[in-house]
Amino acid sequence: xxxxxxxxxxxxxxxxxxxxxxxxxxxxxxxxxxxxxxxxxxxxxxxxxxxxxxxxxxxxxxxxxxxxxxxxxxxxxxxxxxxxxxxxxxxxxxxxxxxxxxxxxxxxxxxxxxxxxxxxxxxxxxxxxxxxxxxxxxxxxxxxxxxxxxxxxxxxxxxxx
Length: 161
What we know:
A hairpin with a 4-residue loop joins strand 4 and strand 5. By secondary structure, the protein is of the alpha+beta class. The protein has helices spanning 5-12, 57-65, 78-87, and strands at 17-18, 20-26, 29-35, 38-42, 47-53, 67-72, 100-101, 109-110, 115-127, 130-142, 149-152, 155-158. Helix content is 17%, strand content 45%.
């Protein structure tokens, strides 16, 4: 018995998530995408996991470079989320006009956002159309100046104070 994909999508819209930009670089090519499949995995050692679709440039870069960065977006950054979600075509520079920096691995991180982590891939697991990348966090920075950008029921939301 197979679950109807539309029912599954409807159910998953009930899950509220934060919004991140996952980035990587390989052979001087950098790219990134909006990702909500992100979570902490372990504090000791510090590890996170992300899930990335096989058919993306970001997946290709992470697979070959074995590094990635994650920038956690702030409440007023839905425009950046949209840009990295594909509103800017895949062949254009999604980083255009945004300030970036790197920490330990060289993965590009966005200067905007609440926080960022810099990771080296330690494990992968292919599942369906995605790869789950487990990353050791080798560096992190906290900018927390705002509330997080959150996503619920196919819309961006903001926490109320």
